[in-house]
TrEMBL record:
One Pfam family cited in the UniProt record for this chain: Cadherin_2
Record organism: Balaeniceps rex (Shoebill)
Gene behind this protein: Pcdhgc5_0
Domain named Cadherin: residues: 6-105, 106-214, 215-322, 323-427, 428-539, 546-664
Protein name: Protocadherin gamma-C3
GO cellular component: plasma membrane
Amino acid sequence: AQIQYSIPEELTRGAFVGNIAKDLGTDVAKLAAANLQVLSDSDSQYFSVNVNTGIIMVSERIDREQLCGQNPRCFLHLKLAIENPVEFYRIEVEILDINDNPPMFPSDEVSLRIYELASLGARFPIQPAQDPDVGTNTLQTYHLSADENFNLNVKARTDGGKFPELVLERALDRELRAFHHLVLTAEDGGSPPQSSKIRITIQVLDANDNHPVFDRPSYGARLVENSPLGTLVVKLNATDVDEGPNGEIRYSLSSHNSAALHQIFAIDEKTGEIRVQGNLDFEEATVYEIEVEAKDMGSPTMEEHCSVVVEITDVNDNAPEVILTSFSSFLSEDAPPGTVVAVIHVRDKDSGEQGKVQCHVSPDLPFQLRKDYEHQYSLLTSTRLDREHIAYYNVTISALDLGSPPLSRHTILPIALADVNDNAPQFEQVSYEVLVAENNPVGSMLVTVSAADPDSEQNSRLSYSILRAGGTDPGLDPARYLSIHHTSGQVSAKLPFDYEQTTYLQFHVEVSDGGSPALKNRTLVHVFIVDQNDNAPRVHFPRPGEDSTTQLRISSSTTPPALITKVVAIDADSGRNAWLSYHLVEATDPELFSVALRSGEIRITRALQETDASAHELLVVVRDSGKPPLSTAITLVVLVEEKAPEALQGSEARATDGGSLPTITLYLIVSLVLISTVSLVTLAALCVRCL
C-alpha cells in the first residue's frame, strides 16, 4: 500500500505530517502491538512516528533545496514495517517549496565596455541571478532602470533559467556621454516577492565598430555518456567584417558557465572546436548548455555570444545496488517456511529499461525472494531447516538489470542456524555385554557406554545414569554393585562380585541431553560373572574328625578288589575349577591300597597276610583342576581285625554304604560334565557375539 502526504519545507521539529493509523484504517493499539518501525531510504531520519497516536511528525529540519536542488518536485520516501504478520507500507512525502531564498547576483556590481559604434540591437549578457527555490518562488523577472540607450531583454533557457541581456536601442555617442549607470533588479514570484539588485557601469569606447557574428544563433549536439576524452562535440564558425586584428576571432567558453562545465568541455580558441575533456555521466546531467564567446582582436575587443546545447544519451554503465534494509544473520533451525530473513532494497542509477532490476537466489538453497513492490524484495525461508545437516549458509543475492549487455551485482548474506534440541542422544550399541572375573577390585572399570548427540552446545551435553532393568531380581539392585560417571559413561564396580552368589546382572543406562526439555535414550548392559578358583574342595564322606582323621575297620580275610570306602568331596566353584581328582599321597603299605582318580573309591589291591601291619594309615589328597589348583587332605586309619560279629557288622555297614557310593559318584560326575559343557558353550557364544 502507498500513502501520500504533502508538507512545506522548513517545518519545525514535531510538526504534524499525517495520521498513519487513521489513513490505514486501523486501531492505534494494534500498531503499537505490531512493533511499528519507520524505515527511510535516505541517510537522515527526517520523520518519526508516535506509536501511541499513529501520528507522523517532523524530526529534523528539511531543506528542499538541499535535498532535491532544482528538481520541480521533491519527495521523501518512507517505509512502515509492522510484524505479526510482516507488512510494509510505502509513504511518499512531497516537500513543497517556500519562498525562503531571494534571487542573488554573483556580485553587487558589473562593468561593461561598449564601443560607440556598436550596432543597434547588440546584446550584452549580464551574469544571471540564482534562486535555489523552484516553481513560482524562483526567479521570475528582471527590471532595468530607465535609460535612453539600453533596454532589457530576458532570454529563456531550455532548462527554465532566465538570462538577462542589455540590448542597445539607440546609438552610443561617447562624446556626449562616456558612462552609463544602470540598476538591474531580479525578482522572484513568491508571496511576498523577494529581490536583489546589481549596479551596471557601462563605459563607451571608441574604435572597433564591428563585432563577430556566428553563422547561427545556437548549436546542438548529441553524445553518449562516457565518450572518450577528445571527442569532437561541435565546430563553431563566427566571422568579423573588420580587417586586420579587428577581424581576427578568438573563441572561449563564457564565464557564465559553471566551473563543472569548464572541467567537462574545452574549446580551441582559434578553430572553435569544442571537445570533451572530462567525464560525461548521464546520471549527473542529461543536457549541457554551453555559452560561447567570440571576440575579435580589435582595441577595444568586440564579442558575440552563442549557446551550444549538448544532449547526453544514457548507456548501461551502472550496476544495480543492493541495500539491506533489514537483516538478521542468525536464524533458528525450527523457523517455519515463509520466515522473513532480510528486507532488500535494489536500485540502478541508469534510466529506462537499463534501470529496471530483477533479483533472484540459487534454487538449491532453502530460501526464496518475494517481491514486495518496485525495488523491494523480502528473503524468506522456503523449506524446513536442519542445523545438523547444514549449519551455515552463504546466500547470494543476484541483482541483474535489463540493459544490453546487462550488468549485475552479487551480495552474499551469511546466515547461521541456531540450534534447537530436536535430536535425542543415540548409543553406539543397542546393548553391551561385559565379562567380569569374580573377586574384582573395588573401583575397577567394567565398561564405558558412549552416546552421541548431533545437537550443539548445551543441547549436546550428555549425562549418564544407571536404572534397574525390567525382570531383574529385586535383590540385585545394580546401584549397590555399580556406579557410573555421569559425563564419561564409565561404569565401575562398587563391590567385588562373587560367582557363587551372582552369576549374571543386567541393568539399563539412561543418557539425557542438556536441552529444555531434555531428550533421553536407554541401552541394556549384560554383566556375566566369570568364576575364579577361589574355593578348595571339602570332604563330605567319610566325615573327618577335628584333625582330619577317620578310622575304618576291615576283616583280615578281605580279598581284592574289595571296596574299603569312598572319599566324597565337593567344590563350590564351577566348571574346571570344580573338577576333582583323588590321590593317595602316603600309605603304610602303598602296594596294599589304591584310590580311584575320579571317583575317590579306595580298594584293597591284594590279600592280607599275617605279616601285614594291623593298622594302616592312608593320606588322601583331593585336588581341583583350577589354575592354580586348590586341594584338601584327609587321613584314613584302616584297622585290620579278625572276623568277629562286631567287625562283620562294621563290614556289612561299610558294604551297605559302599553299595550306595557309586550312585552318588555317578550323579556328581554327570552334574559336573553338564555344568562344564553349558559353561563352555556359553563362553563360546559370548566370545562370538563380542567379536
